[in-house]
Amino acid sequence: MNxxxxxxxxxxxxxxSVMVKWLSEKYDAEIIAVTGDLGxxxxxxxxxxxxxxTGASKAYVVDLSEEFVSDYCWKALKAGAVYEGQYPLxxxxxxxxxxxxxxxxxxxxxxxxxxxxxxxxxNDQVRFEVGIKTLDPELQIIAPLRDWEFKCREDEIxxxxxxxxxxxxxxxxxxxxxxxxxxxxxECGELEDTxxxxxxxxxxxxxxxxxxxxxxxxxxxxxxxxxxxAIDDVELSAAQIVKTLNEIGGRNGIGRLDIVENRVVGIKxxxxxxxxxxxxxxxxxxxxxxxxxxxxxxxxxxxxxxxxANLIYxxxxxxxxxxxxxxxxxxxxxxxxxxxxxxxxxxxxxxLSRSSANSLYSKELxxxxxxxxxxxxxxxxFIHLYGLPFETMTKIKNSIGVTQ
Length: 404
Ligand code: ARG
Known about the structure:
5-stranded antiparallel sheet, 44% helix, 5-stranded parallel sheet, single chain, Single alpha-helices involved in coiled-coils or other helix-helix interfaces, Argininosuccinate synthetase, chain A, domain 2, Rossmann fold, alpha/beta
């Protein structure tokens, strides 16, 4: 079905720049470029000009940075969602919001198709398309990178040069970079060989820990219901909090990751991430949960964190299970209030102090000093009952002569 009006998810990077031109040559349709600013410091006037100059008839650049952090990143933070134990999911958390933006603008503009610039082997196509289908099953989805004639990025670069499309990368620095406030993801180039350690130019927002200042920096983060609200006693908006921590963390070499990960489609990929703000916040938030959550909730929540991270990674943000787990997580966060002081030093993040009005820590119970109020005798009965099934089991085995 040939669309009449299409909205294109546009970033101004290599793929989407080439795509707008390619679409204008392939379809007799009105093209509307849409960019969601998730805090990546977009020069919106320049980007709009670029989109219009490449073949779009209209360009939207929508600032979503506050919504992104407060409605998307904070959910992941409260859940402790980190994929495969390491990746704070920046790109993955951004996609559902961008999918929603595309659907909203398609409705506003009465467009019949949505186009995205994701490749046919990555996660983002899954996240975008499942998100769009869930929000509006009637919209047609076009993914030029799965269909077009270009075999590799070099072909796209050649096409861009031929068509006079300004592109941000060269054949010498061929990284694919995706960034938002929650983190930067960098792949391609030398990184595709897992035996290469990442070149320094693969990092965008952090200094090398070895080159970071010799002076440690301290920061205090205040949380309310699992969400950070102030840094060093200054109340800040959601986006400002992450931006501030990205700067402080970045200059101290915090937040670099070099990972091989399992994609949704089963391919393994190697990527370099920088997420200073997200990693500082996860560390501080976890510390506060250790103080304020009861043992069973804390342990159970670790499983939820893993399930939640997988759902986000797998593009299932708008799913019933995600919604149900969000309700669970929100319930646990009612007492996650208080403050954490951290020290940042040459890539290391150390918790110096944690305190909360909802703290479940009792010094009188924990102490080994004379102030000890714990009744040590009660442990005897506890252990007797707790170990009884195993003691019984061994006695029975011994009596019938079973050795293991
Ligand atoms: N592997 C990450 C994910 O799937 C990031 C993907 C985008 N990376 C990029 N460099 N363009 O969430």
